[in-house]
Every structure is written in structure tokens, then in C-alpha cells.
Amino acid sequence: MTEQTHATEQDVDTLAVAVAELRPALEAILMVSDEPLATVRLASVVGHPVDDVEAALDTLAAEYAEQGRGFDLRSVAGGWRFYSRPEFAGVVESFVLDGQQARLTQAALETLSVVAYKQPVSRARVSAIRGVNVDGVMRTLLARGLVEEAGQDEQSGANLYRTTSYFLERIGITSIDELPELAPYLPDMDDLEDELASVAGLDAPAPEPVVEPVVEPVVEPAALPDAPHHSPHSGSGTEPDGGTEIS
């Protein structure tokens, strides 16, 4: 096979890739990438020669810097990626921190408190203490790095959870022992389980009571004292219908 034939085959392979307008295509790909992309990889995606892609990237980077955009296009670690400009670092940091705080809801704070004081603890027990299902909140706390797995319960096999060192860092303490004395105000798990068992028993239908026949004594008319007749609603006694107003 000659060099000319080999080169032609390479060109065919390159042109087989869908070709888009070079610079907008590069911007679109770099915008969604979370890691630096090598020039060769970008060229294979957009279907343009490597030299053309390299030149387009250099031109884009120069234009962003000249226009004073809020971001730069940089060649770092063997690839190209968008970065926010250093002079806007304070604004970016404020946005990121505010977003994190807003996503930590009251439910998440309550769940995190239970884990902190009862750790290691299972999701089921946290749910029992809070009275609601905490699966979604626990996933959020795990994703935020505030809670981590701590083995399994020997009896039930359920996963146990505890707070992390990042949790200590965020609240400004060095040990769980420095937490305020709130644990005595949380319900004891033994008492809680007894209460839950009693509540579960209430869910079952109660047996119908057995009504014993009542035999009223027969009173002779002559034995009744002479007294004026009173209405059953008169006097200071309780009304026979339990206080329900009758129109």
C-alpha cells in the first residue's frame, strides 16, 4: 500500500465523522465537559483536522481574554477547559456557598441532629424519632459529605450512619463530645420502640364488646313517692344526649 493510498484512507475515516461549524462546536463541547479535553479528542468529535482545532482554540482563548469575559479557555493538564477568571473568584465562592446553605433544609438539619446524637444509627431509627421517612434527606446528607456509613447493625443487618469529620469542621468543633447536651431530651429508643408497638396494636380492629343484658327491677306503683313530675331536661343534671344540641 502506498503512502498516498494510506493518507486517503485516513481522510475518509476523518470525514466519516459528522462535521459541524468548528468554533461553535468546540464551545458547545467544552461547555458541558467537567475535565480538560485533549486537542486530538476534540478534533475527532468535531471532524476537523487537529491543526485547525488547535488554531481555533488559541483564537477563542485570545478573544475571551480581549473581551474581558467572566471565563477563560485554558490549556491545562494536556487538555482544554473553561475556567472562571481569577478576579471573579469571590463572586463564584459566594454563589457556591449560598447554594449549599439553601439546600440544607430544616428537615435535613433535624435529621443530621438525630444522627449526631444517636450515632451510629440506622435510617429506620432516625425515621422513628422524626416520625417521617428520611431516605431522601439521608441521601442528601451523604452526598454533601456530612454523614457516612458506619457498618451494619448486628441484629437487623441494617446500615448504620454517623457524622463525618467534614461535619465537625462545618460546625466548628473537633469532637462529637463537644456537642451541646441535647441527647437527654431525645426519646430513649427502648421507650420509643414500646410506644411504636402500642401504636401498631391500635391499628388492629378492636374486638366487638360483649353486651350483657340488663335486667331492670320491677317497681310497684305504690312504692313511688308522691312528687311533682319533672322534665328530663330540667334541673342541673347532665343532658341525656351528652350535650348535643337538638333543634
Walk me through the structure:
By secondary structure, the protein is mainly α. It has helices at 3-15, 22-32, 39-46, 50-67, 89-103, 106-118, 123-130, 135-143, 165-171, 189-203, and strands at residues 71-76, 79-84, 121-122, 147-152, 159-163. Among the domains are: 14-86, Winged helix-like DNA-binding domain superfamily/Winged helix DNA-binding domain (Arc Repressor Mutant, subunit A, Orthogonal Bundle), CATH 1.10.10.10; 104-201, Orthogonal Bundle (Arc Repressor Mutant, subunit A). A 3-stranded antiparallel beta sheet has the order 3-5-4. A two-stranded antiparallel sheet has the order 1-2. Residues 217-247 are annotated as: Disordered. This is SMC-Scp complex subunit ScpB. Pfam families: SMC_ScpB (PF04079). Keywords: Cell cycle, Cell division, Chromosome partition, Cytoplasm.
List key phrases describing it.
247 residues, mainly alpha, Arc Repressor Mutant, subunit A, 3-stranded antiparallel β-sheet, two-stranded antiparallel ribbon, elongated, disordered N terminus, disordered C terminus, SMC-Scp complex subunit ScpB, ScpB_csome_segregation, WH_DNA-bd_sf, chromosome partition, WH-like_DNA-bd_sf
Main sheet properties: 3 strands, antiparallel
Give the N-terminus to C-terminus distance in angstroms. Answer: 109 Å
Number of strands: 5
* Relative strand content: 5-15%
The whole-angstrom Rg is 38 Å
- DSSP helix fraction: 40-55%
Low-confidence stretches: 1-16, 202-206, 221-247
What structural class should be given to the helix and strand makeup?
A: mainly alpha
